[in-house]
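pls design
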């Protein structure tokens, strides 16, 4: 079962920061999950919310700020209130460019690891004109030498170990990139309500679907690759493994990578706990 780091190693470091991504890669995860938003000057940045308020020293919509101004924000200290910001970070996870990471920077970080790893890009649709995020993602794929046949990035024709999948809660957004990204690399995300999963082989149900085992087993039986989000407890992880879920997204990749299967499963009997 492949382990994807949700917004990087976001249990240890502030989500979507250089430190969170670098730590996840150092742990040897199978994949990195990142959300992307657009700056006012058209840069794809690794960011979840439509605004800056929750996870930075800034405020207001992400799309109202230029990249140069976004780089000036403190995007880390909110994770550890009272700490002295960057001084709390391991030196290996810092950079003169700061903790805010663009999709291009994350891509280069992953290539530099030198081992196979998947980049799962979630397109955050909402505050932008129709097609803006999708167009930016397609341009990014082209710029990094996307090979649709292998699903990998090959900048300047040079083979890398970085493969890519594209995710969204918006079926419209996924259809907009489907001419370039094959169904094996497109991942519809959904929570409580099911969606039409016939158009893609890769699907992204939430952990809530562990409560509906018959449907989950049916998806697996007909050949879907299930990427479940966000696994947080021992029972959830072990249940997903036992059912044959192929991929999971977690906030704490160190825990997920090292949890053994010795303990009994209680989730399937209605009890959940870490």
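designed seq:
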């Amino acid at each position: 079962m492949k382990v994807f780091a949700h917004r990087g190693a976001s249990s240890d470091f502030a989500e979507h920061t250089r430190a969170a991504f670098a730590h996840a890669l150092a742990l040897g995860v199978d994949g990195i999950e990142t959300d992307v938003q657009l700056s006012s000057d058209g840069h794809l940045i690794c960011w979840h919310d439509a605004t800056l308020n929750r996870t930075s020293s800034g405020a207001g919509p992400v799309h109202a700020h230029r990249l140069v101004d976004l780089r000036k924000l403190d995007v880390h200290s909110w994770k550890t209130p009272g700490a002295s910001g960057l001084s709390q970070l391991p030196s290996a996870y810092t950079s003169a460019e700061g903790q805010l990471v663009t999709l291009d920077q994350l891509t280069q970080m992953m290539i530099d690891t030198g081992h196979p790893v998947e980049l799962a890009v979630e397109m955050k649709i909402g505050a932008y004109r129709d097609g803006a995020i999708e167009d930016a993602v397609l341009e990014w794929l082209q710029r990094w030498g996307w090979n649709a046949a292998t699903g990998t990035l090959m900048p300047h024709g040079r083979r890398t170990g970085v493969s890519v999948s594209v995710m969204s809660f918006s079926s419209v957004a996924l259809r907009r990139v489907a001419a370039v990204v094959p169904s094996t690399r497109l991942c519809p995300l959904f929570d409580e309500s099911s969606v039409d999963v016939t158009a893609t082989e890769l699907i992204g149900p939430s952990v809530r679907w562990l409560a509906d085992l018959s449907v989950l087993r049916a998806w697996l039986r007909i050949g879907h690759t299930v990427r479940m989000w966000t696994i947080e407890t021992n029972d959830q992880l072990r249940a997903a493994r036992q059912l044959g879920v192929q991929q999971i997204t977690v906030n704490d990749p160190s825990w997920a990578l090292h949890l053994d299967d010795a303990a009994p499963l209680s989730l399937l009997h209605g009890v959940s706990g870490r």
